[in-house]
Amino acid sequence: MSQQFDVIVIGGGPGGYIAAIRAAQLGFKVAAIDEWKNSKGGPAPGGTCTNVGCIPSKALLQSSEHFEHASLHFADHGISVKGLEMDVAKMIARKDTVVKQNNDGILYLFKKNKVTFFHGRGSFVKAADGQYEIAVAGDKPETLQGKHIIVATGSNARALPGAAFDEKLILSNDGALQVNDVPKKLGVIGAGVIGLEMGSVWRRLGAEVTILEGLPTFLGAADEAVAKEAHKLFTKQGLKIEMGVKIGDIKTAKKGVTVAYTNAKGEAQELAVDKLIVSIGRVPNTIGLNTEAVGLQLDERGAIVVDADCKTNLPNVWAVGDVVRGPMLAHKAEEEGVAVAERIAGQHGHVDFDTIPWVIYTSPEIAWVGKTEQALKAEGRAYKAGSFPFLANGRARALGDTNGFVKFLADATTDEILGVHIIGPYASELISEAVVAMNFKASAEDIARICHAHPSLSEATKEAALAVDKRTLNF
Fold first, then answer.
1. DSSP code at position 116
2. Same-fold call for 3-157+283-351 versus 355-468
3. CA angle 295, 28, 342 (to 5 degrees)
4. DSSP letter string, 350-379
5. Angle at Cα 388 formed by Cα 78 and Cα 449, nearest 5°?
6. Alpha-carbon distances of 397 from 276, 404, 433, 474, rounded to whole Å
7. 295 φ/ψ sector (left φ>0, alpha ψ -120 to 50, else beta)
8. Do 239 and 207 meet the contact criterion of CB atoms below 8 Å apart?
9. How many helices (H) and strands (E) does the chain have?
10. pTM above 0.70, yes or no
11. Are 76 and 41 within 8 A, CB to CB?
């Protein structure tokens, strides 16, 4: 006999596990299904983010940044290091430990919130009598019945045609996190978040990194001033970045990969590397979901079609995160997961897509929220801009990390904050003040008049807000 649930969540990534927990908090009987396995075959909920995305990449970024600080910057602090070595195997093992801690933490949260967890692949079987039958394929096959279904199956790395991932020479984000030795030469196709972060990790450890990007503009989604500064700093660090390329044949041999491409000038080029990371975006994951069994509608990209409330074309079937429209960000998925659980409970869950922050965890970090200056110009909206460099910030000087700046964009008439863009130390943390301010429709003057601790990096935020009115105090 099938087990009965009020809510069944398919997928245990940020959108899925958060949706399951929130639904349980609201009093529903909830099942969560996830198929990720750890190295021992046990459950590893958390999705791409926890297992091969956000969490492990940040662990490697932290380790590689420590190494670079020790090799290049410790001497400035009077710290002498002799015989510095990098144990890549230990770095990878630490990353794996961090991942497992997060996996185990999610399993604990399921237990704490009385969410019934099923380890396996969930798929639709049929719809009948206002319910949906869901199969769980795994070591212990199950059949579940649920009134509400939340699909949170995430996304997969997009492969280049004719260059399938083997995770040994041609790597997705998964394989890029499992490299056992520092490659002498590393190629990266795609100058987006994953490409820049993974390229930075292995460059710091000694690899010669070349990034090939098809688009003519570097970091086109970011503010132009931020993108220009980032390109300058990354190039100075040693990343070789080529824009406007057209990728041709990719050939693998016993010891490496050769990429034929045409550069922005139309000249034929060839790049020979030990390993190649392909990071050209991600595609919605509906593999094995058996959407056709119930008539769940997909769009031309393979994403599940949803409305503004994450409702699908089927009654009581919802979808959140990377498998639907919108930015493929873990925190966006979480917010949608919470909102859907609350909508099922008759509440008014809400996600503001205009104030979702974006972060790139390079060094310096890059973070932004709201409109870019080029977007405001394209709209014809009158605005004021103000910037403040970390070079003039006391805490940044003490840290020895003075690259970058904070930039505010505000409405020319009302002074409402329209966008905040940061490149510099701890940008990922500093952006939260801007997100809060924009959600409360704050003006630049509001931030300028709030007392910020001294010395702190957040003072750069205050000073940038002051700069909107051309009255900075420390620059």
1. E
2. no
3. 75
4. ---GGG--EEE-SSSEEEEEE--HHHHHHH
5. 110
6. 37, 12, 22, 13
7. left
8. no
9. 13, 22
10. yes
11. no
Could you report the per-residue pLDDT of 268-318, keeping only the tens digit for each?
A: 999 999 999 999 999 999 999 999 999 999 999 999 999 999 999 999 999
* Residue 331, annotated as binding a ligand: yes
Q: Is 344 within 8 Å of 28 (Cβ atoms)?
A: yes
| End-to-end CA gap in the chain | 71
CA 336, 340, 343, 345 torsion-angle sign: negative
What's the whole-number mean pLDDT along residues 466-473?
98
pLDDT tens for 235-249 read 999 999 999 999 999
What's the token pair of residue 26? 């609201």
What's the chain's length in residues?
475
Q: Which CATH architecture has domain 355-468?
A: 2-Layer Sandwich (3.30)
Q: For the segment 86-108, what is each residue's pLDDT rounded down to a tens digit?
A: 999 999 999 999 999 999 999 99
- Structural tokens at position 224: 């132009």
Handedness of CA 145, 103, 48, 358 (dihedral sign): positive
Hey, what are 41's tokens? 């075959």
CA distances from 123 to 52, 127, 136, 296 (A): 23, 12, 7, 12
Phi and psi angles of residue 298, each rounded to the nearest 5 degrees, phi first: -115, 155
Phi, psi (degrees; rounded to nearest 5) at 185: -125, 130
Q: Indicate the residue type of 347.
A: Q
Kindly list the domain boundaries of the chain, sorted by start residue: 3-157+283-351, 170-280, 355-468
Determine whether the annotation assigns residue 90 to a binding site.
no
Q: Which CATH number fits domain 170-280: 3.40.50.2300, 3.50.50.60, 1.10.620.20, 2.30.110.10?
A: 3.50.50.60
User: Which candidate in 66, 148, 350, 454 is catalytic?
Assistant: 454
Q: Which residue has the tokens 């409970």?
A: 345
For residue 58, say whether it is annotated as part of any ligand binding site: yes
The matching CATH number, chosen from 3.30.70.20, 1.10.1740.10, 3.40.50.620, 3.50.50.60, for 3-157+283-351 is 3.50.50.60
pLDDT of 93: 97
Q: How many other C-beta atoms are found inside a 10 Å radius of the C-beta of residue 87?
A: 11
Which residues have CB under 8 Å from 449's CB, separation 6+?
Answer: none
How many angstroms separate the CA atoms of 431 and 421, rounded? 8
- pLDDT of 1 higher than 70: no
Does the annotation mark 454 as catalytic?
A: yes
Give the C-alpha separation, 14 to 246, whole Å: 35
191 assigned binding-site residue: yes
